[in-house]
Amino acid sequence: MISVSRNRSRRLLAAAVVGTFALSLAACGGGGDSGSGDSVVIGYTGPLSGGGAAYGENVKMGLEMAVDDLNADGVEIDGNPVTIELKSLDDKYAPSTAASNAQRLADQDEAPVVVSPNAGAIKAIQQINSGRSNFLVSAYTSDPAIVQADNPLTMMIPPNFESYAKPFTEQAMEHGGKKLALLGTQSEYGQQWTKAITDEWKASDGEVGADNSVDYATVSDFAGPVSKALAEKPDAMFVGGPSQPTALIMEEARKQGFEGSFIVMDQAKLNEMATVTDIENLTKSVGVLPVDEYEDPGTEDFLTKFADKAGEDKVATSETALNYQGVAIIAKAMELAGSTDDPEKIRGSIGDALAEVDDKYKVTGFPTEITDQGHLLNQELEVAYLDEDEKYNKVPVEQVPDTQ
Prior knowledge:
By secondary structure, the chain is α/β, with parallel strands linked by helices. It folds into two domains: 2-161 and 296-377, Response regulator (Rossmann fold, 3-Layer(aba) Sandwich), CATH 3.40.50.2300; 177-283, Response regulator (Rossmann fold, 3-Layer(aba) Sandwich). It has helices at residues 4-18, 53-73, 95-108, 119-125, 145-148, 165-175, 188-203, 223-230, 243-255, 270-273, 299-310, 318-337, 343-348, 350-353; strands at 2-3, 22-24, 38-46, 75-77, 80-90, 113-116, 136-139, 154-156, 179-184, 207-211, 236-240, 261-264, 285-288, 369-370, 376-377, 382-386, 392-396. The strands form three sheets. Strands 1, 2, 3, 4, 5, 6, 7 and 8 form an eight-stranded mixed beta sheet that branches. β9 (179-184), α7 and β10 form a beta-alpha-beta unit. It is globular and about 65 Å long.
């Protein structure tokens, strides 16, 4: 364990030498004085600049909120008060940079846990987190390949995106028709989604048009790609990438006369898109359930605190809420493990920790179990269909196994 004063001096020295760290230090609450209290760093590597910055900041917001609340409540490990600190590094969505950042956080800052919100980055981190460096990766991605890798020090947070393919297809066909246009993002993750929804659509006797995927991060004029997709006369359209460009694509489709349904991949959030375009453009869409539609014990208070921190014009997304929950789970696992520096013990205590996390941290489908491969699960998963009256209708989801 390292003292607060010694750890703080090392952070200042590292910042002076490296000059690139983005440090977010939470205030101490119930952690004792700096002479006797200990601290533990939770590391975060994510896109904090460039095209993915809004997404990365949403994740960081949840981590910051959790650290603030946990320190205010007081964290005690093996009988000693402990202050949790968050250290954030920008990786600009580059997997190699993310892996380098994670190594630095583990080696220089002795972070036993590093959070990453990018499937490609997580895969790169999994090559190093259970070898010379030992740390738990808190994986914010719905890509099942993350747990299929059998990495012993992984905790995957969101549901497997493949579980969404069937209910999304059913809703889109019910409210649209049998012909689907593909206009998702060109990223590796977007192409995995495109394949999953294509396979399910065809299995449901639907017709799928050409793959008109575009790079959501670089394309700014969507009129051409939308026109090309609509030339196929689809009843439904698959879209998705970050919320902002996804909203603009859907807006453009409505402008060009599309009246069918939308399938929105889980990276985009319907309530966040409603801050970019009129919600009328988003109706007849199926996507993940917005945070403010949950009724978990801590949802209401979380939304109030989020509004105080982020402002009334910004909406809380799954990135923020699920990572808020994730840090609370990790802190409780440390308490049960009696350790802040043994990732194996922390990982091994997560299952027991789930039942002991305070209700205030249960915001958005809080998990009730963790699989042997490290995937957090809540069996009562739901998605949302946004109807023409601009109301969200909850749709239950039967989750598929990660081993498919």
